[in-house]
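Entry type: protein chain
Record version: 2
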Amino acid sequence: MDNLPSLEEKLGIRFRDYSLLLRALTHRSYLNENPDMVLEDNERLEFLGDAVLDFVVGAYLYHKYPEMNEGELTSLRAALVRTQSLAEFAQIWELGRFLRLGYGEAEYGGRERPPILCAAFEALIGAIYLDQGLVTVQSLVKPLIDPALVNILEESLHKDAKSEFQVWAQAHYNVTPRYQVVDSSGPDHAKEFTVQVLVGDEMWGVGHGRSKQRAAQAAAQSALLKVEQIVE
């Protein structure tokens, strides 16, 4: 973990309690293979970071769009804190290369997996909040939110993707899409679901999310991107 100062340099902060940073980057698979380690994994920090992000993003949107109604604000926040968005934020910070993973998890591409990156990002936000306070979290998150929000609005990623894809599927195939959960992982307080959307027997999209509904929306959005490619 000698490279952690380079992560601090990237973030522009210096941790007062280094154990928080280490914990935020420690996946449970690492402790499974190193049971003598005293440090706990990042799941409790992930829980805290999830709540902090909901507040920070919600407050940001509230002030940025004073005339926007609650439903639209909720949709935008959901799009900004969904698994894929947070995983992309983690990639901007290059968190994958700093993670402490078990050998097996690392060998199977854990450093690039969206659910692991999302969890690490949330855990790091929780650690920063405890170590540096809310203002620092806000200053670090805002540069990530701004360009992501532009993309979400341009691509209408906050819209009800399930309804949109259903209209398309019924118009072109006279079939209502089916959604099925194909995987779930993580502790009860931070379950991660993987959902596929099928039209007939053909799989059109896959999505991840903290709830089955979020994962289904992500799968529908993935399917809509496939539709756009076909149309083009």
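Comment: The longest strand covers residues 178-185.
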